[in-house]
Write a structure and sequence with these properties.
Blueprint lengths: L5 E6 L3 H12 L1 H8 L3 E7 L15 E2 L2 H5 L6 E4 L7 H10 L3 E4 L2 H17 L4 E2 L11 H7 L5 E7 L2 H12 L4 H10 L8 H4 L2 H15 L9 E2 L7 H9 L2 E11 L6 E11 L11 E8 L3 E8 L3 H21 L21 E11 L4 H11 L4 E9 L2 E8 L2 E2 H13 L3 E10 L3
Parallel strand pairs: 1-2, 1-4, 2-3, 4-5, 5-6, 8-10, 10-17
Antiparallel strand pairs: 7-9, 7-11, 9-10, 11-12, 13-15, 13-16, 13-17, 14-15
Helix pairs in contact: 1-12, 4-5, 5-10, 7-8, 13-14
The structure holds NADPH dihydro-nicotinamide-adenine-dinucleotide phosphate and L-homoserine.
Amino acid sequence: MRTRPLKVALLGCGVVGSEVARIMTTHADDLAARIGAPVELAGIAVRRPDKVRDGIPAELVTTDATALVKRGDIDVVIEVIGGIEPARTLITTAFEHGASVVSANKALVAADGAALHAAAQRHGADLYYEAAVAGAIPLVRPLRESLAGDKVNRVLGIVNGTTNFILDKMDSSGAGYSEALDEATALGYAEADPTADVEGFDAAAKAAILAGIAFHTRVTIDDVHREGLTEVTAADIASAKRMGCTVKLLAICERAADGASVTARVHPAMIPLSHPLASVREAYNAVFVESDAAGQLMFYGPGAGGSPTASAVLGDLVAVCRNKLAGATGPGESAYTRLPVSPMGDVVTRYHISLDVADKSGVLAQVATVFAEHGVSIDTVRQQGKDGEASLVVVTHRAADAALSSTVGALRELDTVRGVASIMRVEGE
Ligand code: NDP
Ligand code: HSE
């Protein structure tokens, strides 16, 4: 074993960074044995130097992250600051100064992954980001490496721990939305700005990364159709229960049937209670990958939190350090297919639509006619009347999202339709 240590700069020492530092210290001997050389924490960049940090040697802490990555003797930079800047400049500077980079930053990789990969390649460095998608679950490396000989057609799953935690609490204990979000934040699951979680930006970033790797193409967060869970009401959850379903925030990336394009989307959806995703509780994540040769694979585990995420970061650290010692680099970007990303209107799925209508004769026929005129076939209708008004729940067969949108537009024009209470996609059947 080499005795000279590989030097690691840790950028960020919050929920994830503090766990990375802890495990690097407590598992130092095992890490050294697995890598073939000791790894030494050479510096830790933070924003607030005076914050009390248990187990963190004060002499390693600095507020000058730029000077740390420019030192010239750093072998690996671990970026767990988050956000676009200064993370992007720090990572690029790290490559320029000969370091490889491990990052947990899905926002940055989803926005600028191609440029970062190009910078890494230019400087003969690695860029690894297993922790950026689904916390502890090995997903990026299986897609990038284990499935590199297969053809992936679909990736579907729960990739945000915070929103799954909120939906689970609302569904199982009747907790309120804000109360559940506060708990998820206190447990370290939420992003620095939890809007990223509840509005679906975090899951959309992960969907972009997964789609890009799975389909060997370039997908950025701007290509991903995104709806968060702020519009999901207790009534939606109750309605899902009546249908034998539950509501989950799903990320779905698909290759079109003709193979000529892909789609990527994040939105709340009803899934049957019998589907494995329905039993994913708390901040756990689960992702199905469907491919030509392997068939269906399911990846499941803790999707957020300091320690689970640190596990993924350290796995990358070991891989990148091994590459350094071998004088090699791991796989870079694979985007040779250059498949276009189709708009949401092209996506075909089922829908659950809840309408408030006048409770009088002919209304049901009128509503059914609008669906038929737009080529959307109805599967089931449930009507509940009360004081001259009725609530109508329509579940459709599979239809294009554009056709469903036009249907809803036309329904809103009907005098007898008082309002469209909710529209939710139905997946997993
Ligand atoms: P935190 O907000 O807990 O930690 C961020 C850290 O970055 C803090 O230590 C902060 O310093 C430091 N920091 C912020 N700005 C600067 C700066 N300009 N220069 C130097 N240091 C700075 O975030 P998390 O640990 O939760 O997340 C980090 C990354 O990991 C993000 O990209 C996130 O998306 C990702 N991630 C998080 C997961 C989770 O469950 N939390 C799971 C998977 C990925 P200070 O301590 O002084 O404030
Ligand atoms: N905020 C993210 C989540 C962290 O809740 O899933 C893990 O990426």
